[in-house]
Specification:
Oligomer: single chain
Radius of gyration: 12 Å
Mean pLDDT: 96
Order of helices and strands: HHHHHH
Number of strands: 0
Length: 97
């Protein structure tokens, strides 16, 4: 699956089968279910979960909490366009598969 296919799946009623928890969280967030996305992200250990968590807090406008999670993920604090960041994170995780 590539980024275009992942974005197309947002029109479906459920996330694609077999994707990682990080991608599932990002799928739900993009469809407007921030709470579900956060629930999923909280259960993802390590840098991957921390990066998604950081993005989610940035999306909600909680910059200080986002900064904490970016540090835990080992990533610089993002300051650019949120949609571009979402695509970059999704693309990164899709390439890990």
């Amino acid at each position: 699956m590539d980024l275009v296919q992942f974005e197309a799946s947002l029109h479906e009623s459920a996330p694609p089968v077999g994707i990682s928890g990080a991608l599932e969280a990002l799928w739900h967030e993009r469809r407007g279910d921030w709470d579900r996305a956060r629930e999923i992200a909280q259960d993802i250990a390590g840098a991957e979960g921390s990066w998604v968590h950081a993005y989610l807090h940035r999306r909600e406008g909680d910059q200080s909490n986002a900064a904490y999670w970016y540090r835990r993920a080992g990533k610089p604090v993002a300051r650019g366009n949120l949609d571009e960041e979402w695509r970059a994170i999704v693309d990164t995780f899709l390439k890990l598969v």
